[in-house]
Amino acid sequence: MINALMKKYNSYLANFKILTNNYRHKHIVKKIYKYYSGKNDVFALSIQLKTKFLGFTILEYPNDMWFMQEILTRVIPDYIIETGTFRGGSALYYASLLENINPKGKIITVDTDPQIHKSFHEIKTLPHLYKRANYLFDKYITSIKASSIDEKLVTSFKKKTKNKKVLVTLDSCHAYEHVLKELELYAPLVSKGSYLVVFDTCVDKIAEAVRKKQKKEVYSLVLTQDYKKIGGPGKAVKEFLLKNKDFQIDPMEKRFFETHLPSGYLKKIN
C-alpha cells in the first residue's frame, strides 16, 4: 500500500513540476512577446523592421513563421496566395520552403504598394544574398500591384489554380470589412485539408485592451483605423466562421503560448 501511495505521490509531483515549468516558460515567452510587440508603433517597428529573412524585412512574429513552415510541409501546396506583400520577406520565406517541399509550386503575392525593391536595395552590397533572393523571386514568386479584394483579380486566381492545392494567407489591410471581404472571396480557392491563414487577429485584443484602459501602449494603427469601434481581423474571422462551416480553427498557436494570430489558423475541413 505504501508503494502504491508513493507511486501516486511521485506521479502528482511530476505533474506539478510540468505545470510549474509550463508556467515559467509561458511567463518568459510573454516577456519576449511584449518586447517584440513593443510599447508603441515606433518601438515595435524598430524591432520588427530589423527582423530579416535572407536580408528581406519580414514583419511577422517568429512563432507564427515557425507554424507556417509546419503547415506548408504538411499541406505541400501548389500555390500560395498572399495578400499583403510589404517588402517581400514572407513571400521569400515561403519560396525557400517550396523549393524544398514542392519545387514546382508558385507564390502569388498581392499588395496596393509592394516594396520589394527596398529589400533588394538593402542587400545590393551582399552579392550572395542578392543572387539567392533574385533566384527565388524569379522562379517562384509573382508580385501583383492591386487591391486584394478586386473580384476580377480573385476570379483570375481561381482559374489559374483550378485543380491545384491552394493555401491562402491574408495580411493586407486589417480593417474588419476588408478582411471579411477577403475571407469571403478567397475561401473558395482554398483546398480541402489546406489553410486560410488570417494574420494579426491580435489587433482586436489590443484595441479592446485600449478601450478598457488596461493597456497604456496604444498602437497608432489602432487609433488610425479605429479598431476600437469597427473591429479588425479577429472580428472578421468570428463572423466568417458563423456562416462558413467548411473551416475550423486550428489551435496550434497555443503550443508556443504567444502568437499574433489568435484563432487565425483556419483549416478547411469540407
Major β-sheet strand ordering = 5-4-3-6-7-9-8
Provide the gyration radius in Å: 21 Å
Provide the CATH superfamily of the largest domain.
Vaccinia Virus protein VP39
Distance between the termini: 53 Å
Residues in β-strands, percent:
5-15%
Low-confidence stretches: 216-224
How would you characterize this protein structure?
With 270 residues, this protein is α/β, with parallel strands linked by helices. The chain folds into two domains: 1-37; 53-268, Vaccinia Virus protein VP39 (Rossmann fold, 3-Layer(aba) Sandwich). The chain is built from twelve helices and nine strands. The protein has helices spanning 2-37, 41-48, 62-75, 89-101, 116-122, 127-140, 151-160, 176-186, 202-211, 220-225, 227-230, 233-243, and strands spanning 52-53, 56-57, 79-83, 106-111, 141-145, 166-170, 195-198, 247-249, 265-268. The strands form two sheets. A seven-stranded mixed sheet has the order 5-4-3-6-7-9-8, with helices on both faces. Strand 6 (166-170), helix 8 (176-186) and strand 7 (195-198) form a beta-alpha-beta unit. Helix 3 runs parallel beside helix 4 and helix 8 (176-186) crosses helix 12.
Brief descriptors of the model:
270 residues; two-stranded antiparallel sheet; 12 helices
Could you give the topology of this structure?
Layout: H1 2-37, H2 41-48, E1 52-53, E2 56-57, H3 62-75, E3 79-83, H4 89-101, E4 106-111, H5 116-122, H6 127-140, E5 141-145, H7 151-160, E6 166-170, H8 176-186, E7 195-198, H9 202-211, H10 220-225, H11 227-230, H12 233-243, E8 247-249, E9 265-268
Helix pairs in contact: 3-4, 4-6, 8-12
